[in-house]
Write a structure and sequence with these properties.
heterotrimer; A mainly alpha; B mainly alpha; C mainly alpha; B: mainly alpha; Four Helix Bundle (Hemerythrin (Met), subunit A); 2 domains; 72% helix; C: two-stranded antiparallel ribbon; 2 strands; 70% helix
Chain lengths: 103, 166, 694
């Protein structure tokens, strides 16, 4: 197990946990938390490959991660705003109940 | 693989697990904060200091606070009667496990074939700044736009109906 | 008169047609056009209709006289004229249908006779039909008849002749049934048409055979016509059944057609019934012209009938013609003795005289038969018109037992009628009938094949005199036994009578042995005037014999019927003495009943069989097909409703259900979407990993 492998495995584990949380929990906010975890694991992946991959001086991995963090923050803001707005309408945050866009 | 790595890893994973398993939403939010911190430490151990500090600043300083505010505004602190897990939680867990299994197996099988250098890269903030306004200026500007749009959008979406747009 | 064959070679072949033969077609065309115009006129336009008819026929008469003059001048110059104008009507493949007309002595004489007698009868009809409301229709049909008859006369193509022949038959039907509201008239018209049709079928067969054999429809066509030596020779080489040559068989077939039209023995039944038509119709059609068309036809195709004559003998067709003619002459004369209707007596007399004409043709040649035809036309028309005058004057009475004493009440009619009657009987020397009938009897005397026709014809002459004097004494002598007051007919009716009476006498001059002009004219030779004709051996004896027979007949009749005026209900004097014979004669030898029992009964049975066949067999076949189609239709519908529709409906249902199923994937639950995404990621990674393996 190389160091890179270790980091990658941690990232995969965190990804799986985040995915499980998004798939299993009923509260919308927890789904968002799960998504944040998944994003973070992806960031970890990027940084790990930047550190152990060729040409770290190109800063590709680092840049990716930084931008990812920025976008994730914006997305979290909008998403949570949406959850609040929906809560105002339907007085619930359980996503089982929010299925008005069914086919 | 040093002991430090294992410790930080264990912390992060524990935090993540706690975030998805705890019933009280506020506890989940705090646990995910711990997970974010653990990740920051991992970044630091990977010599990505700037990324690590940005992680702390943004994720723990903004996103986690945001999550707590959202929980506050949606009365998430009350525990729902029907349970926090969906009735089909097993399927979700199975799918997540499948994903973990497949990607993990891919990693294990291929990681030894990747050339890995042990040399520590020296990256200063100055370098990152130059890179941002140099090769990466376009993504920078787009992200700026994106952040603006996100801010405006979030404000509009979350506004009270009386003062908001129909 | 010596029996001489028709000498064809005396006719110079004509290379150019003269002016008159170029416009010869106008002679039948004008009356037909007049008929067409009258058909479009309204009923009250009587004067116009009569003017059209009489005018057109008058012009035709003038043209006929001009044509006759042309032929006559040619004959006087020593060139016998035979001019034909032919044209092609249709072409199919290598053969063609050709029509045309011919101007020769035979057609010239017939043209003048038909148009003259026709014109006189037209004038007579304006008076006779004056009280009838269908005056215009009458003249329309009369004109059409005149045109058609003239067409028959000038036709050079056997097909054109047949077409005009059929047209003549049609107009005869229309005119017999003129008062169609009377059931007897309608039935008589139908009977006439059907009976002549029987003859016409044989005629048509003859035409087709002739055309097939000779390849031409024309009679005279510069050497290639069907009556010219080349064609006749080819006909003689072909053999038909029963030992006949093709010429003989075709001759017999054509004679069958003539027999129908001219009322010869088996097909005579329609002529007496045809008296249902108005009297002018009887005069024109059933005395002078249409019935003469059959005799004319035989005269026209005489070269064919005569072809291949063995030395000193007679051809088969002419033998048949003679026997049929002679039998008809006696048969009809016997029946005429026992009739009581004035027109019916004359009708049977016509049948009898037609038999004489046929016998004359068979035994004596064209001139002998045609001479009697010409003279008979005039005096028979005279007799019929006289009878019409009598009927008109005695207020539509037709039974002779209800007439009488008209000698004083209708003098002009009486005189002209007696002239006609004496001409018919053949009163010696003065009247034309004597010379024409004598010619026939003389020919019979010289006939080598058998003597029986001679005796039959002499007996017929006796009967003719007998029944005519019977009729005259019933009608004109004795006391008036009818109802109302009898009066003379108007001038417009008596004038034609007088003209015809003149001809009944004068025509004798052209055929007597003193000056055998008629025969010479027809045969294209010169005629010598002089008494040498009388030096024939046996001629004077024969003239004396026939005179004696006529006097005997007249005397017998006068002695039995004379000036007596029997009561209408009393039986006839002859009937009282031989009642059974009288009954047979009065019932016309039961021929009609025989036909009714055999031919008509068979036909009715056949019609029933055909009807059964049609309804059961063919109808059944159609019904079976229909039923089968119905079966197919029901099966189809079953298939359509259950299989096709069922499949389609089920398919649609399945589609709808599966659509519903697929729609249920859109649950609106975000977590489900996410789960599927994750599964997709798993699949993607697997694919990527496996595809990148070496």
């Amino acid at each position: 197990m190389t160091p890179l492998g270790g980091y990658l495995l941690i990232a995969v584990l965190m990804f799986a946990i985040g995915l499980a949380g998004a798939l299993v929990r009923r509260n919308a906010i927890l789904v968002l938390i799960g998504i944040e975890l998944m994003l973070n694991s992806a960031n970890l992946n990027f940084i790990a490959f930047w550190r152990y991959g060729p040409h770290p001086e190109a800063l590709t991995g680092m840049m990716f991660a930084i931008f990812s963090i920025a976008v994730a923050a914006a997305e979290a803001a909008v998403g949570l705003g949406l959850v609040i707005a929906i809560y105002r309408h339907t007085h619930t945050t359980e996503i089982d109940k929010i299925n008005r866009m069914k086919g | 693989m040093t002991v430090v790595f294992y410790l930080i890893a264990a912390l992060t994973v524990a935090g993540a697990l706690a975030a998805v398993l705890l019933k009280n939403l506020v506890h989940c939010a705090l646990a995910v904060t711990v997970a974010f911190g653990g990740l920051a430490l991992l970044f630091l151990s990977l010599d990505a200091q700037f990324a690590g500090f940005v992680q702390i600043l943004v994720y723990i300083g903004a996103v986690a606070i945001l999550i707590v505010f959202a929980i506050l505004l949606t009365r998430g602190s009350d525990v729902p009667k029907d349970g926090v897990f969906s009735p089909t939680w097993l399927t979700g867990v199975a799918i997540a496990a499948a994903v973990f299994a497949v990607i993990g197996w891919a990693v294990i099988n291929s990681v030894n074939a990747i050339p890995q250098q042990a040399a520590v890269p020296h990256v200063t903030v100055h370098d990152i700044g130059i890179a941002l306004v140099g090769p990466y200026v376009l993504p920078l500007e787009i992200v700026a736009l994106l952040l603006t749009a996100a801010t405006v959008g979030a404000v509009i979406v979350a506004m009270h109906e009386k003062g908001g747009s129909e | 008169m010596i029996l001489i064959q028709e000498v064809v070679s005396s006719f110079t072949p004509q290379t150019t047609a003269s002016a008159i033969s170029g416009i010869l077609w106008l002679i039948p065309a004008l009356p037909i056009v007049a008929s067409g115009c009258i058909a479009l006129m309204k009923q009250p336009l009587r004067r116009a209709a009569a003017t059209f008819s009489i005018g057109s026929l008058g012009i035709s008469l003038l043209l006929s006289i001009a044509a006759f003059a042309h032929v006559l001048s040619g004959w006087l110059a020593g060139n016998a004229v035979r001019e034909s104008v032919n044209f092609t009507w249709m072409r199919f493949g290598s053969s063609a249908v050709e029509l045309g007309w011919v101007l020769d002595p035979l057609s010239a004489v017939m043209l003048v006779m038909v148009s003259l007698v026709g014109l006189l009868i037209f004038i007579y009809s304006t008076g006779y039909m004056a009280h009838d409301e269908n005056f215009t229709r009458f003249f329309c049909f009369l004109s059409l008849f005149a045109g058609a008859m003239l067409g028959v006369v000038i036709s050079n193509s056997i097909l054109l002749l047949f077409m005009c022949w059929e047209l003549v038959g049609l107009t005869s039907y229309l005119l017999i049934g003129f008062w169609y509201q009377k059931p007897s008239a309608a039935a008589a018209a139908k009977k006439a048409f059907l009976t002549t049709r029987v003859g016409d079928i044989f005629f048509l067969l003859g035409i087709v055979w002739l055309f097939a054999q000779t390849g031409t429809l024309l009679f005279y066509d510069h050497g290639t016509g069907s009556l010219e030596p080349l064609a006749l020779a080819s006909l003689l080489t072909q053999h038909a059944a029963l030992g006949l040559t093709a010429a003989g068989a075709i001759g017999l077939l054509i004679f069958a057609g003539a027999a129908g039209k001219s009322g010869q023995l088996p097909l005579h039944v329609w002529l007496p019934d045809a008296m249902e038509g108005p009297t002018p119709v009887s005069a024109l059609i059933h005395a002078a012209t249409m019935v003469a068309a059959g005799v004319y036809l035989i005269a026209r195709v005489y070269p064919l009938m005569q072809a291949g004559v063995p030395a000193g003998g007679v051809t088969t067709p002419l033998t048949v013609v003679t026997w049929v003619g002679a039998s008809t002459a006696v048969f009809a004369a016997l029946i005429a003795v026992a009739q009581n209707d004035i027109k019916r007596i004359l009708a049977y007399s016509t049948v009898s005289q037609l038999g004489y004409m046929m016998a004359g043709l068979g035994m004596g040649g064209v001139a002998v038969g045609m001479f009697h035809l010409i003279t008979h036309a005039f005096f028979k028309a005279l007799l019929f018109m006289g009878a019409g005058s009598v009927i008109h004057g005695s207020h539509d009475e037709q039974d002779i037992r209800h007439m009488g004493g008209l000698k004083k009440l209708m003098p002009v009619t009486f005189v002209t009628y007696v002239i006609g009657m004496l001409a018919l009987c053949g009163f010696p020397l003065v009247f034309s009938g004597f010379w024409s009938k004598d010619a026939i009897i003389e020919a019979a005397q010289h006939w080598t094949t058998a003597r029986a026709p001679f005796y039959m014809l002499v007996f017929g002459a006796l009967l003719t005199a007998f029944y005519m004097i019977r009729q005259v004494s019933y009608v004109f002598f004795g006391n008036w036994r009818g109802h109302g007051h009898a009066h003379e007919s108007p001038r417009v009716m008596t004038m034609p009578l007088a003209i015809l009476a003149f001809f009944a006498v004068a025509l004798g001059a052209i055929g007597s042995p003193l000056w055998p002009w008629f025969r010479s004219f027809l045969e294209g030779r010169t005629a010598e005037f002089g008494f040498q004709g009388f030096s024939e051996p046996g001629l004077l004896t024969l003239m004396a014999t026939s005179s004696f027979v006529v006097f005997l007949g007249l005397g017998l009749g006068w002695w039995i019927y004379g000036n007596k005026s029997p009561a209408p209900e009393a039986p006839d004097a002859l009937q009282a003495s031989m009642p059974r014979v009288w009954t047979v004669l009065q019932n016309k030898f039961y021929v009609d009943e025989l036909y009714g029992a055999t031919v008509i009964a068979f036909y009715a049975w056949w019609a029933r069989v055909a009807d059964w066949l049609d309804r059961r067999v063919w109808g059944g076949a159609v019904a079976a097909v229909t039923w089968m189609f119905g079966l197919f239709a029901r099966f189809d519908r079953f298939l359509d409703a259950n299989v096709v529709d069922g499949t389609f409906d089920k398919g649609c249902e399945e589609l709808s259900t599966s659509g519903g199923l697929l729609a249920s994937i859109q649950s609106g639950l975000v977590q489900n979407y996410l789960r599927i995404l994750a599964l997709a990621v798993v699949a993607l990674v697997l694919i990527l990993f496996w595809s990148s393996r070496p």
